[in-house]
Amino acid sequence: MEHLIAPSLLAADFANLQRDVEMLNQSEADWIHFDVMDGVFVPNISFGFPVLKAIKPIATKPIDVHLMIVNPDQYIEQFAKDGAANITVHLEACTHLNRTVQLIKSAGCTAGVALNPHSPVALLEDIITDLDLVLIMSVNPGFGGQKFILNTYKKLYDLKALARNRNPDLKIEVDGGISEDNCKELLQAGANVLVAGNSVFSSYDPLLAIQKLKHP
């Protein structure tokens, strides 16, 4: 499976969001990663429906919505309506995870589940066959620019082993501290979707930075 690149708008220039989305349209990026934070589940607040609605007509790539929020069920339908192609929720934020996953699918989106750094892959054992994507957080969610957590490699190997026979088409996404320095190792460990924020948008040449992640 060819790996996908999903630059994170959390690291974009918010005063020039249209310009940055149009840059991603021209790039080798496959998805646009859209982080939603509520200041409750994570200690930060980012953006929500109005921004998604504004960028959807501009974006030519699928929008990968990552909900770092409590009570995601009540917002799923609206995110789907406003332009999400994939919606990922956090296992730690969902009391009834199966119900939430079915809600995402019934809204017409592919469904992902994210794991915080402290959550073991084994927690997904009973739901792995229902998922389109699993997102392994390689930093604690809430802020960009954090240091990569090395235990991520083990979790990727564990997830790849869990999915091998039960969900071989599973997309394995990793988010946090990703750059051209570690992308090859992450792909070897089992990742096939790389989220990159600062390493793309803080680069002197974001198009080249994306190209290097796409062809490591």
Give the arrangement of secondary structure elements:
Layout: E1 4-7, H1 17-26, E2 32-37, H2 49-55, E3 63-68, H3 73-81, E4 84-90, H4 97-106, E5 110-115, E6 133-137, H5 152-166, E7 171-175, H6 183-189, E8 193-196, H7 198-201, H8 206-214
Parallel strand pairs: 1-8, 2-3, 3-4, 4-5, 5-6, 6-7, 7-8
Helix content: 25-40%
On the 0 to 100 scale, the average pLDDT is 96
- How many distinct domains? 1
CATH superfamily: Aldolase class I
Low-confidence stretches: none
Structural class: alpha/beta
N-to-C series of helices and strands: EHEHEHEHEEHEHEHH
Q: What is the top-level CATH class? A: Alpha Beta
Largest sheet: 8 strands, parallel
Through-space gap between termini:
15 Å
Gyration radius, to the nearest Å? 16 Å
In the sheet with the most strands, the strands line up as: 1-8-7-6-5-4-3-2
- CATH architecture annotation name: Alpha-Beta Barrel
Number of DSSP helical runs = 8
CATH topology-level name: TIM Barrel
| Mass-distribution shape | globular
Proportion of residues in β-strands: 15-25%
Strand elements, count: 8
